[in-house]
Every structure is written in structure tokens, then in C-alpha cells.
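It is worth pausing here to work through a concrete case rather than discussing structure prediction in the abstract. The textbook approach is simple: state the sequence, then state the predicted structure, then interpret. We follow exactly that order.
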Amino acid sequence: MKNFLSYALMLYIFAIFQTVIFPDFFFVISQIIAKDFFLTLTIDLYYLMIIYFSFNRSFLKGLTSVIMLYFIEEGLGFSWIGVQIPIFLTTFLVIQVLKVHFVFHTRRAVGVVVFILIFVENISHYRLGLDQDFPIIFIQYGFSALSSSLIHAWVGGYLFEILTAFDAKTLYRFETQRTLFPLPIRSL
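Step two, the predicted structure:
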């Protein structure tokens, strides 16, 4: 219960960052540098949470977390209605396959996975939301998607370490379960 309430508070704080602080931050950066490119950037903390829960939860708990995060994000109106659920579920399934075959214990390995997933998510989001062909999307939004992916890969590594440390203090898990970072996790 403590973990659930802590994550609920964390999601509330993430919503404030994602809707108020990050857009204003990137607006100020765009005014300083005089490039409109930064106006389209943001950091999708909810998607990073989905990636984290997909890696660090069992199939059923991870799927439940992904669906709950989808409804929270849809309820807050972060994206076009119905666009996120196929992207979230595809991400979840891809990570379920990846975590069976690979172990991700370094920030660099996690960053590469986050970079690829965020880039595909950005392009898919534009494809589903704008209903344009992929070449047009790459020409118009490719640089923005690439930059967003780099920012997410950098932020994701640090966020995942924080969340793993948080889980290590609030959750009891079997020692054999894979986690993103090799922290000591208490077993049952």
C-alpha cells in the first residue's frame, strides 16, 4: 500500500512536470537560443514509467500498470484519444520479449533501449495522430523525434536508477527476478 500511494504521488508530480514545468523550460530555452525547434520538445515521464514497469514487473503486474497508466494519461488529456494504447501495449510486449533474452544492468544499455523505443513511439504517434506517410513524417518531425529520443535516453537512465532504489526499499521481490540495476532487493 505504501508503494501504491508513493507511486500515485509520483505520478501527480510527473503530471505537473510534464504539463507545466517542461513546456515552460523548453520555451525559455527556445527564446534564449532563438530556435523554434525546442517548442515541440517535452519529456514523457509517463512513457518512461511504462518502460520501467515493463522491465521490472511480472507480465500480469506490468500489463496492469501499463493499462492503469494509459487511463491516467488519457484522463489528463496528454495525447490524442486512443493513440497511446496500441503504442503502450506494443512497447510492453517488445520489452517482455527483450527482457527474456537480454539483461540490462547498465545505464548505457537501458539508454539504448529507451532511445529506440522513444523514437519509434514518437514516429508512431505522429503516424497514428496525423495520418501521414512515413517519409513525410521523417522529413517534418525526424529531427524532433531524434532529439526527444536522446533527451529521454539520458533522463531515463537516471529515472530508472531512482525508481529501482525506490522499489528496493518498498517492495519485496524474489532475488531471481530481473531488474534494471543490480541493487540488493529483499526477498520473501
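Step three, interpretation. Residues 22 and 42 are 6 Å apart (CA to CA). Residues 134-170 form the longest helix (37 residues).
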